[in-house]
Amino acid sequence: YLYPNLDSAVWRSGEAAPALARALAFDVEAGRLAVVDARGVPTWIDLRLGQVRPAARAPLALAASVDGAAIFGVAGGRVTRLTPSGSDWTVRVGASPEALYPQRDGSVLVAATRGGRGVVWQLRPPAEDASDSATVAGGRPVRADAADRVYFAHGTELVALRARGLEAVPPVDVGGTVLAVRATPSGDRLYVAVEGARELVVVDRYAERVATRVPLPGAARELRVDALGRVVLARAARGDSAWVVDVAGDSVLGTAATAWRDDLPLVLPDGAIATAAGDDVALLDGETLDRRATVRGGAREFWHVVLWN
User: Fold this and answer.
1) pLDDT greater than 80 at residue 169
2) What is the pTM of this model?
């Protein structure tokens, strides 16, 4: 569909497609979307050719992609790379992988914990040996959607390694157990949800310190950042609702009633917020949170936005 015209499809494929669970990345040049289906099997959807093709026969854990072409994941305890050309690659590292971070240069960072410490390996396919590695004080890997750093939660601190050179970054004490971390698209800020805290902790990544705290109506457990960096969606720890946080004003715009799924709620290009309301999708105004429109039966579909010419 060509948003905002959701009443008629501008493209459809005649091929059968599995139920989708999560989008990984979009290759704008090839028009190829990398996704994971409901069984955990990585799949490519080719918008130019109209093809839907599984990338593997079996589910792939920790599936991740940065370009929509190469898909990394873990199968049988081994780090695996799948490509449309079939030049697959697999290697085993020194601990059970807990997070994968594909890089634009074709390498992948593998994060894990070993002996009470956090460890990161840098792998460059097709080589089978790590090109670099580093350790941090401890903790568990936490995804922040920041391509240039790997984060670990250690006590009340966020500990990070830079992707380039795996250099350590000064830790930041956020004052509690980290539940979720998300970076803004520009990478200058981190939003952190802390267990039991009725606030979002905002970290200035340039100063490596807490910049401010945004009061919330309650505790949050998951976060989602608008792809254009305008708002942060914070999932309430209890109930089906999300708080909409204005990035520019560091304030809560209001509460949106919605189920929290891998695809919804979703901030659309014009700032509207697509929310799951039973079987329907409600489109809310991004500033007032008033309902603009309702897509009947929309919640039975999988929602994702790509910019594609």
Assistant:
1) yes
2) 0.93
